[in-house]
Amino acid sequence: MTPRHIVLTGLLAGLAGLGHAQQLPPDSRLGDRIRALDLAHAQAIFKGDRAALERLLPDDHTVNHPTNRIVQEKAALLALIDEGVIRYTRFERRPEQLLFYPDMVVVMGDETVVPAEGAPNAGVVLRRRYTNAWRLHGGEWRLAFRHANNVPPGPDPGSAGPRR
User: Fold this and answer.
1) Please, which residues have CB within 8 angstroms of residue 135's CB and are 6 or more apart in sequence?
2) In the chain, which residues have pLDDT < 50?
3) Run of H or E including 92
4) What is the pTM (predicted TM-score) of this model?
């Protein structure tokens, strides 16, 4: 094998290992902690509570936002809150599923929001699906990244039968 092949083989083996992160069994104490943080995040967004968001989000926090853009960095998200792009008269979050990994807990769930006047879709009741990834950063759980998307109006997919 040439040195180039050795490096390439090592790189591929390392990347293959990244794709096999084992999901851990549920941890009810940690699950309760993460659920509380997830709901605290929703409250902080609803209230525009910058101090709480400073504690909950790392500087490199990234959001795949329902306004069809990727918001990188906590500062950009806080700017959208300051500009009124992210502002609600109602914000309800319902965590449904938690997935546990060595330094990450993924929360998947459902949200109902009503954007405030001046925000996109002001006054419209929006249902969203969301995924939040909480990572351990320096001994503290922080919301590393988030994806939220608006669900088109129509029949409730939960009424079609059991979810898998």
Assistant:
1) 58, 103, 104, 141, 142, 144
2) 2-18, 159-164
3) strand 88-101
4) 0.79
